[in-house]
User: Fold this.
Amino acid sequence: MFKNVKNQKGFSLIELLVVVVIIAILAAIAVPIYMNYVRNARSTEAQTALAAIRSTYRVYRQTYGSTDNYDIDQALRAIHLGNRTLKNWEFEVVGNPPTKYVATSTEEFPEGEGNQVWYDVDDAKYFGYGTADDDEANTSDEVLD
Assistant:
């Protein structure tokens, strides 16, 4: 009976532990990269909506010469954003003529409320959550504290 047990082939405990450690290392590398892709995709949703809002403001200003009587609700009705985008983000336009377009995440947003993406007209660039400058902004905030 014991002769059969000694002749059985299989993996030793050390071999199994090595495989588990390798899988853990690969997961530790892959998960942050994946989360960064997800963050960028969620930010792109806001950036796309802000681009559409900017476009409606630009058309209104070219048509009427000013954006005095134009507000964000009119812009949102004109562009017909999807329900998920409207649940995830609140939009705001700063200035007249607009100098900044801001999207702030709501409590429905998977990563919580308060994340902001904004487009600065003077810089012609997106800033905030999930943008290339997001990591730089977090680093500079840490340095200032």
Residues 17 and 33 are 25 Å apart (CA to CA). The first strand starts at residue 89 and ends at 94.
